[in-house]
Amino acid sequence: MQPMQAALQVTTQSLDDGAVAAVSESAGNALAASNDLDMLQLILHASLPVQLVMLLLLLASIASWVIIFRKKKVLDRALQEADDFEEKFWSGADLGKLYDSAQRNADGGMEAIFEAGLREFNKSRRRGLEDGRLQLEAAQRAMRATSSREIDDLERNLEFLANVGSISPYIGLFGTVWGIMISFQGLANVKEATIATVAPGISEALIATAMGLFAAIPAVWAYNRYATRVERVAVKYEAFQEEFSSILQRQAE
Question: How far is CA 250 from the centre of its chain?
């Protein structure tokens, strides 16, 4: 009995050592595979279509961030200038002095709307137009035209952000589908399909999706935020036009 027990112990120990060795080898292979899945290396070794997709998404993301920072500065200035001019306008300042100042320093915004309206109103009077209603309508047309130009300037490049936000995920998805397709085509050339075989191709494909989302999410957020702020500026301009029209109407009567 003792020789048999000794043989069983030796066999069990050999099996345990083999299992440990197999587990260690698997862990080593997994660690090596994870080290191989370096993001930069995946991008550099990706197929040409996937690289082009990534480059396009990178350029779209950079352009979006440039527009985001510039548009924030423009909208902040537009709102601040509108508030500052309204404060001067309703402080009881002489309209003639405000008009002269607007002609010298008009950079756009509410000040330009005021200058255009009063200029057209005065021009109608100098032409001998005695009908106050026609004088007022001429001033209102000038203010509406100027306001439209100012809003168009504020909305510039917002369409680009909207396009990036809506198209980038699909471009990234195209890169993902292409990368996965290439990975599965590569399986035809190997005798044994393993996770390590397809992992690099699938990883590079998923990077394209991640880059698409990275480009799209800030663009969508910025578009929604800035479109709301442009609407706020437009409401301020419209309210000022109505209030200034009331003042001009009293002068025309």
Answer: 46
pLDDT band at 30 (very low <50, low <70, confident <90, very high): very low
Question: For residue 194, what pLDDT is reported?
Answer: 66
What does the domain layout of the chain look like in residue ranges?
A: 1-36, 39-252
pTM of the model: 0.74
Residues shown for the chain: 253
Q: Which of 53, 40, 29 lies closest to 180, judged by CA?
A: 53
Instruction: Give which of 250, 239, 253 is closest to 114, Cα–Cα.
Output: 239
What is the tens place of the pLDDT at every residue in 124-162? 888 876 777 888 888 999 999 999 999 999 999 999 999
pLDDT(189) > 90: no
Alpha carbon separation from 19 to 28, 32, 33, 196 (Å, rounded): 14, 20, 21, 21
Q: Are 95 and 115 in contact (CB under 8 A)?
A: no
Neighbour-count burial for 154-177, b at 16+ CB within 10 Å, e otherwise: bbebbeebbebbebbbebbbbbbe
